[in-house]
Every structure is written in structure tokens, then in C-alpha cells.
Amino acid sequence: MRFLHAADLHIDSPLHGLDRYEGAPVDDVRGATRRAFENLVATALSECVDLVVIGGDLYDGNWPDHNTGLFFVKGVTQLAEEGIPVAIVRGNHDAASKLTKSLRLPRNVHLLADMKPETVVLDEIGIAVHGQSFATPAVLNDLAIAYPAPIHDCFNIGLLHTSLNGRPRHDNYAPTTLDVLRGKGYDYWALGHIHAAEIVLREPWVVYPGNTQGRDIRESGAKGCSLVSVENEVVLDHRAIALDVMRWDTLLLDIAALPDLDSLLDATTAEIRRRLTQSGGRTLALRVRIAGCGPLHRVLAAQPETVEQQLRSAAIEASNAQVWIEKVELTTRPQLDLDRIAERDDPLGLLVRELRGLAADDVARSVVGEEAFRDLLQKLPAELREGANSLRLDAPDVLAELLGEVEGKLIAHLSGEEAAP
Fold first, then answer.
1. Cys-Cys crosslink for 206: which of 9, 189, 254, 276, Cβ 3.0 to 4.6 Å?
2. How distant is the alpha carbon of residue 113 from its chain centre?
3. SS3 content of the chain, % helix, strand, coil (to 5)
4. How far apart are CA 275 and CA 280, in angstroms?
5. What dihedral angle (degrees, nearest 10) is formed by the CA atoms of 229, 205, 180, 225?
6. Cα-to-chain-centroid distance, residue 53
7. How high is the pLDDT of residue 295?
8. Is the model more confident about 228 or about 380?
């Protein structure tokens, strides 16, 4: 027996952080989450699975119209025609949508209740699925505690939308612990809510498949679902299946070995072609980070907008418009011997030593970040203070990265070595 475990489809969710420009693959981006769901259905059919379980967040809150729900119904109806059942719990985004609750689903779809845990027993394949949907967008209690006892002579799956005991950049919804999950005696916990794939535990299996389509640069790499093979109520194999149609990635280039702009564009072109090969021909959304120090810094600092457009042009040419340059970050520095400056007995030397001392002191960074940015963070709009795209200026690791960038730029400016047009 085999089943697919997916979660966090976020059908019709917009992809964030993509600037429009001539030649960008706009059509590939529009509808990426839909095409990833189509790939899920196609995989279930081609692999002849016996069941599909979905751990919540099928949608992305309220739909603009009913077409989003109808699109999902069309997909699961294809599974119904092949006798493949689907078990679902609603997540926080689904619970936020009034239209979701009014959607009539095909008979092969088992939507588990939201008032209390429910068990669906599929006798023909020997599986019992236990779960509870979100009744409200923010469920803060441990749902798993009340899940029922396992069904004898069945492979028992716990279907749960949860943050477990907390995960970075995700709201702490339906929190629970591994001790609670172990105590239920289930064979497999099919989780959702966390967008990074993770095998949390193997005895019993506790798995996040990740979301089916990355939506911004923080959701980089392959995205998809889990294909699980079972025999005699034991998991024999667990395999990640890529479903995404557009993949996010970061391209880091160091100018130390790049003497001029042509060499930078050549290096970018070569790396883009390599990444395309690795992605299996998928459209790529790349963030290009150019760092390091060298003579090329002056050119980049003098005309950053021109360089950005040349990089985008190179990407279009190298990929036949399959690569979208999501953003270009320039963090290069002029050629300064900062180690030698740090040894000097003057204000610049003292400044370098202080910056490096702060960067190396976790406690001091934490205190400085909290005090220095408290007022600024309170004044930022909600979208920059919360969620996946928040500016975490007070986080010690973020402050350490900023200090590394500031060091060279500040010393260059104070010493008169700043780039000139």
C-alpha cells in the first residue's frame, strides 16, 4: 500500500517579491500553485497510490471568486474516478475563508471535523486516518491530545496542522510535543503548517512534507510531497517527490576573482545555466548576491541600476527567459586591508576593533539589537514586522550579518576610499 502526504498547497496564493520587467517569465509565475497541485494529482495517478492525505492550508484565505474551489474539486474528482480517497484537515488559512466552508466536495474526499477529532477507517486498504480541522484561523491549544486511540489491524495515520513545539517564521498554532504524538501509538503523523520539508522522527514517523510550491525567496529549493510505501503496517520507504513548477534560489558571486563587468556577466551566465540543469528545466526565481572586495566594486557602486539591468538581460539570454532575477543585492567593498587598519592606534583602528568585538559577542549583539531598534520596529508597518517577510533587525544573527556589511563600507567612507563615479 502506498499513499501521498502533502500539505500547504496555498492554491492561488500570489508569489511575492517578483519585480516585473521586460522578458521576465510572467506567465510561468501566474498560476504556479495551481500547476503544483496538478502535479500532485498527476503523481497520485501515475504512482497508483491508495490514498492522498493533505495536512491543511489547501487555500490562501478567502478566494477572489469560486474558481479557486472549483479548481480543487476538479483535481480531486480525477482521483475519485480512479478510486483514490483523499483525507484532509483544514489549516489556519482554510479556516479564515468563508467560501471554503461552503464548498461541496466529491464523495472520495473525507474532510475531518473541526469540533472534535474524527477517525476515518478505510477498510479496503487497511488505513485509519485520525485528525481534526481548524475551526478558527488561530488554534492555540494542543489538538493532538484528544486524538482517539489507534484502530487495531490498521495502519494508523495522524493528520495534523501544527507548529509542534515551535518553528522559525511560523505562527505557533496547535502546538504539541513529540511525547504526545508518540503516546498515541500511531504509525505515521502526517503534519502540515511548516513549509520546509522535515522528517522529525522515524519511530513513529513524524513528517512535514513542506509546501508544494515555494512562494518567496525564503521558501527556496525543491518543494513537493512525500510518497510513503507500507507493508504489514510498517513503513518500508519514504521518498520526497518534487511538484514545484517554479523554484527559488540564491546565486552568490564574489568579485575577488572578477576583474571587470564582463567577467561578472560571464560568471552569472555560466552559473544560471548550471542551476537550470539542476532544476530539471523549471523556471527559476533567483536572488543574485554580489559580495566581496576588488576593483570591480567601483563600477558596481557607481552604476548599480545599470548593472542590475545587465544582469537581468544576461539571465534572459542564458535561460531563454526561464530565469527571473527576483532581486540583486550588492554588498561589495573596496579593497581595504581591514586587518591592518584594526592594528592602527587611531580612531579608524578603534572603530574596526569595536565593530568586530560586537559582531563576536552574542550577548552584546542581543542587547544592542533590542535597544537600538525597538522604536524603529514599532513604527514599521505590520507587513514588515510580522510574517515571512518581516525585518528582524533586532535578531542577533541578523545584526551580525549587518555588522559584517557595514564594516567595510563605513571604513571606506571615513577613510576617503569610497567609490567614485
1. 189
2. 28
3. 35, 25, 40
4. 9
5. -80
6. 20
7. 87
8. 228
The grid cell for 213 is 510550491
Which region among 71-80, 120-129, 220-229, 321-330 has the lowest average model confidence (pLDDT)?
A: 321-330
- Say how many residues make up the chain: 421
Contact predicate 46/80, CB 8 Å: no
User: pLDDT digit string (tens) for 260-310?
Assistant: 999 999 999 999 999 999 998 899 999 999 999 888 998 898 899 999 999
**95-119 pLDDT, tens per residue?**
877 777 778 899 999 999 999 999 9
Relative to beta strand 51-54, strand 86-88 is parallel
Residues 61-105 have pLDDT tens digits of: 777 678 889 999 999 999 999 999 999 999 998 887 777 777 889
Q: Is the dihedral of CA 105, 108, 109, 111 positive or negative?
A: positive
Q: CB-based burial of residue 15 (10 Å sphere; 0-12 exposed, 13-18 middle, 19+ buried)?
A: buried
Write out the three cell numbers for 99.
Answer: 467560501
State how far the alpha carbon of 164 is from the alpha carbons of 60, 259, 308, in Å: 21, 49, 41
Q: Which helix (H) or strand (E) holds 396?
A: helix 396-415
Given strand 127-131, what is the order of strands in its sheet? Answer: 118-122, 127-131, 155-161, 188-192, 205-208, 198-202
Answer positive or negative: Cα dihedral of 121, 127, 130, 136: negative
Which DSSP state fits 146? G
pTM: 0.80
Instruction: Kindly list the strands in the beta sheet with 2-6, ordered across the sheet, starting from the edge strand earlier in the chain.
Output: 109-111, 86-88, 51-54, 2-6, 224-231, 234-242
Task: Say which residue the cell 576617503 belongs to.
Answer: 416
Task: Go through 176-213 and write b for each residue having 16 or more CB atoms within 10 A of its CB, e for each that does not.
Answer: beeebbeebebbbbbbbbbbbbeeeeeebbbbbbbbbb
Interaxial angle between packed helices 362-379 and 347-360, expressed in degrees from 0 to 180 and rounded to the nearest 10:
90
How far apart (Å, rounded) are the C-alpha atoms in residues 258 and 297? 10
Contact 164, 176 (CB under 8 A): yes
φ/ψ region of 61 (left if φ > 0, alpha if ψ in -120 to 50, else beta) reads left
- Going by the DSSP 8-state scheme, the letter that residue 103 receives in this structure is P
Residue 392: exposure state from Cβ atoms within 10 A (0-12, 13-18, ≥19): middle
| Amino acid at residue number 416 | G
